[in-house]
Amino acid sequence: MNAVDINSRDDLRELYRELILDHAKSPRHFGKLAGATHTAEGINPLCGDKLRLYLRLDDEDKIDAASFEGSGCAISVAAASVMTDTIIGLNVSVALEYFRAVTRRLTDPGQDHGDNLDLGKIMAFDGVHEFPSRIKCATLAWHALNCAIHNQTKPASTE
Amino acid sequence: MSHPQPNDSTAVAIENCRSDFPALQQEINGQPLVFLDSAASAQQPTAVIDAVAEYQRHDHANVHRGVHTLSHRATDAYEGARDKIQAFIHAASRREIVLTSGTTESINLVAQSYCRPRLGPGDKILISHLEHHSNIVPWQLVCEQTGAELVVTPMDDVGQLDLEAFKQLLSTEVRIVSIGHVSNALGTINPIKDIVAQAHALDIPVLIDGAQSVPHLPIDVQDLGCDFYAFSAHKMFGPTGVGVLYGRESLLEEMPPYQGGGDMILEVSFEGTTYNDLPYKFEAGTPNISGVVGMGAAIDYLQSIGVSHIAKYEHDLLEYLTQQLASVDGIRLIGTAADKASVQSFLLDDIHPHDLGTILDHQGIAIRTGHHCAMPVMDYFGISGTARASLALYNNVDDVDRLVAGLDKAKQIFA
Ligand SMILES: Cc1ncc(COP(=O)(O)O)c(C=O)c1O
Questions:
Q1: How many domains is chain A partitioned into structurally?
Q2: What is the model's pLDDT at position A113?
Q3: pLDDT, tens digit, 9 for 90 and up, residues B76-113
């Protein structure tokens, strides 16, 4: 293998990190959610990613359960899986702060956006910004979250 | 490994033609580009790029309008391209060559101008399960407008039309049949002459969506017998935004204009307008002149190699591609009809096509992923999309080998 090859492999490894592959192969919180109070669909027409997000909010607007179903590429499924992991237990206003932080981070990397959120596993998606055509995959679930919280009936689209 | 060998002098010319395409001479992500997405849009040879640039530099003016020299030159170039198109598809008359913005507009033109005035409730439009969205949605629109019904010929597991069912579905209520010549998602070549003969036995006109056939198969609309034939320049090494509607003269004569505007009239007054003759009746407004000039140059280029030689070369290469893909562990080939052109769709393990597309692009290999504007075909196979490699005259066995090696890497990453 020549140097170019190894290099390209490394970039791809940055995109397809172990954590992403793991969540893509065994997504967490996958399936319908009984007693969901909010739901929204996310569609990425470019690659046919299609997922439905379910949220259950308690009286204090805390997300006490979340799940998703649907099909998509490794990046979009992993993003939905990590997102549901992240937002369960958060108040919706904090969840929306995450939504804004994630979309900013992926579309405008390298900037200090002054976010003081603990992004944790979400940082595994940092490699995506080297692959502009995949940013929409990584943000699809987050757009669905935004729509679900705002009770929008039209599917979230990354377009 | 048995590589198809060039076996005559023309095949050698085809093997050399890659150097005619400047876009193919670049590296993508540090690797020489392997372009396997010509079914979406083909690259342009220098001859086309230069013809367009020359036209823009020296000959541009509006067509059919001025008495000055440049307007003459522009008109000659534009009308000269129409003659080339006529000869290329063996139409009986240049009056049958309507220049459009592409296959999509050509099909919409027939739907709106031929079908809309004459269809009503009880009438049927017969298409097939294999169609591109642009050979589905225009008919759905005209069905909504007229109350006619859209009827779909089913396909089978290999991606072939069910011709028995087609026969059953043909009836006197069917007012037009519209079928793709070559499926862009699966590569299936449909038996057009057979389809036309059966439809004509009931006096039903037939439109053929030729978007995917023109760069790969010699086309003779009179031999095929079809009534309309639609295609796009950009799939045949020409510019985007230009295409053709071939229409049988007697049918075009009967049809009202599709759009109103300049160029499509003889005389306008507020009392009424006299429409221009064919084909200008259907060409309202200033056309894409440079695009049409480029299309003419693309036809010259194709003919300099010979479309039947191209067909033979690509047939062998497609066979090699299919064999090599079939030997990849975990591959599922989608679309395995006996008679095919240019295209192979596939899935690998449970890797999503979009991920495959990214991994291959990172190795300089361009394929198409997704539903290929043929969602009903995807639904048939119960999948959301495929990875699709499509071939053109500039591809070769090395491209196929690079693709197969690229798939190996995808397997490693997702192992
Ligand atoms: C079979 C088929 N029909 C129609 C079209 C539409 O062509 P255009 O977008 O050039 O109008 C395409 C191109 O994608 C095609 O493959």
A1: 1
A2: 66
A3: 999 999 999 999 999 999 999 999 999 999 999 999 99
CB atoms within 10 A of CB B269: 7
Please report the pLDDT score of residue A48 as a whole number: 73
Give the C-alpha separation, B107 to B247, whole Å.
11
- What does the pLDDT average to over A143-153? 87
Contacting B residues, span 244-263, partner chain A, CB-CB under 8 Å: none
Average confidence score pLDDT of chain B: 95
Is the whole-model pTM more than 0.90?
yes
Assess A16–B contact: CB distance below 8 Å, yes or no.
yes
Q: Which domains does chain B have, with CATH numbers?
A: 9-32+306-413 (3.90.1150.10), 49-304 (3.40.640.10)
> Residue B1's pLDDT band (boundaries 50, 70, 90)?
very low
Query: Going along B106-167, which residue ranges are E strands?
Result: 124-128, 149-153
* Coil/strand/helix, residue B176: strand
In terms of Cα–Cα distance, which of B109, B95, B106, B146 is closest to B125?
Answer: B146
Domain that holds residue A114: 3-157
Per-residue pLDDT reduced to its tens digit, B172-194: 999 999 999 999 999 999 999 99
Q: Which of A4, A48, A75 sits opposite B370 (nearest CB)?
A: A48
Residue B358 falls in which region: left (phi positive, over 0), alpha (psi -120 to 50) or beta: alpha
Chain A contact present for B354, CB below 8 A = yes
Query: Any catalytic annotation for residue B373?
Result: yes
Ligand 1 near B102 CB (within 6 A): yes
Mean pLDDT of B201-205: 98
Residues of A in contact with B415 (CB under 8 A): none
**What interhelical angle do B353-361 and A3-15 show, nearest 10?**
150
* Tens digit of each residue's pLDDT (9 = 90 or more) over A118-143: 888 999 999 998 898 899 999 999 99
Of A7, A15, A73, the CB nearest to B352: A73
What are the counts of helices (DSSP H) followed by strands (DSSP E) for chain A?
5, 4
b/e map A8-43, b = 16+ CB within 10 Å: bbeebeebbbeebbebbeebbbeeebeebbbbbbbb
Distances from the Cα of B373 to the Cαs of A70, A131, B90, B153, B350, in angstroms? Answer: 20, 23, 29, 18, 22
| Any A CB within 8 A of B29 CB | yes
